Amino acid sequence: ILKAVRETPAAKAVAQLANQICVAALHMGEVYEASIRLYEQSMLGPDVQKLVVETDRGKLVGILEFPGQGGPYPVVLMFHGSGAGKEVLAEDARLYLARGMATLRVDLPGWGETTVPLTLTLQDAEILKEMITAALAHERVDPRGVGIFGISYGPWHGGQLCARDDRVRAMVSISGIFMLGDPRPGLQIPETLFRAFWEPMWKAGLRPAYGTKPSPDTSVYDVAHQIRCPILLVYGALEPERFRAQAEELAALVPTAKTQVWHSGVHVLRNVPEAAESAADWMKEQIAGPGGTP
């Protein structure tokens, strides 16, 4: 892609296509890697940067995007769900960018380009403190703290960080889970499909064996009393019990949390666009409101 056409509508359309291919390729393999290169050739520049954080357990990878020139801007870290990667968050990021917030779409441990292995222990969330540190060190980022946005599996990481890192200023959870291994009804994903995107990464040493149980000390409920920042828990009335129940249970434990229920919403509320718009408005009030970055 020629530098001259970057940031044009054509380049953005190519990048959107590359993101869609990444999702279709289950965020792994040669097609995924080629699509990553295509996205980067189309979009990377002063306002769209790849952030790679080297840790003692591997690298964390994210896409840091700014809403315009200059800064500093408040930043929202964005965490994907299970079976996905940072590319699935592109449309969510657009809502926050439109409201004057920078976004950092992160590949969580065991997923996408991140090489930090998934362990199903607290380490999976703790390691993300290093991504917060890297984001806040950027000269175009408001250094006072971060917002967190997560969907489905992503809010588990966000909830742990809310309890363990006072640099987190607010969190939006969309259909989030906070207790891994909950036996209540969840998403019905065919086992053959789940194995298809799990086992190649297990063979590469990036995930535990299929069927491994999460560590018993991973429940956000156990550290809910440590959470001080505001949390918006958004879910749909038509999604599985696990997600509805966990949102209400966490809200009952955290005085600064509130739920927002969309009665026609299914899991992650893609069928209710105004849910995502409302959540982005709420986040702007928390981290870019009075006294925040304009």
Write structural notes for this entry.
The chain is of the alpha/beta class and 294 residues long. β7, α8 and β8 form a beta-alpha-beta unit. α1 runs antiparallel to α2.
List keywords for this structure.
294 residues; alpha/beta; globular
Write the layout of secondary structure elements.
Elements: H1 9-24, H2 29-43, E1 48-55, E2 58-65, E3 73-79, H3 90-97, E4 102-107, H4 123-126, H5 129-136, E5 141-151, H6 154-164, E6 168-174, H7 191-203, E7 231-236, H8 241-253, E8 257-262, H9 273-287
Parallel strand pairs: 3-4, 3-5, 5-6, 6-7, 7-8
Antiparallel strand pairs: 1-2, 2-4
Helix pairs in contact: 1-2
Q: What radius of gyration results from the CA coordinates? A: 18 Å
Q: Quick check: average pLDDT?
A: 91
Helix content: 25-40%
Largest sheet descriptor: 8 strands, mixed
Question: What's the quick description here?
Answer:
The protein has 294 residues and is α/β, with parallel strands linked by helices.
